[in-house]
């Protein structure tokens, strides 16, 4: 399993941002190999994170090359006060089933 964490600072979000953000999330959910997503906010640093989980790098690459994602990436300076992306291979996931996204220990 892989995760792609998109960490960013906010400027002002407008209709175009929300439209593209929703379209990217919807596109991701329809890509074979999509496993789920989470969104986090750190009030202390005023940073936000969207974390997407994938079965494979190929599935992740499909989102990265999606036309809506490329359109948002080209316009990101309009809405974001900087960003970084962290791509990780998830070696293990465990914990409380009530928190979701539990997979067998050997998954990914």
UniProtKB/TrEMBL annotation:
UniProt protein name: Antibiotic biosynthesis monooxygenase
Organism (species): Oxalicibacterium flavum
């Amino acid at each position: 399993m892989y995760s792609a964490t998109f960490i960013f600072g906010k400027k002002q979000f407008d209709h175009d941002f929300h439209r593209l953000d929703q379209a990217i999330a919807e596109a991701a959910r329809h890509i074979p190999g999509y496993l789920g997503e989470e969104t986090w906010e750190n009030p202390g640093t005023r940073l936000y994170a969207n974390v997407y989980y994938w079965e494979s790098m190929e599935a992740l690459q499909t989102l990265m090359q999606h036309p809506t994602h490329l359109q948002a990436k080209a316009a990101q300076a309009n809405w974001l006060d900087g960003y970084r992306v962290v791509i990780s291979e998830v070696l293990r996931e465990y914990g409380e089933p009530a928190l979701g996204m539990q997979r067998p220990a050997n998954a990914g």
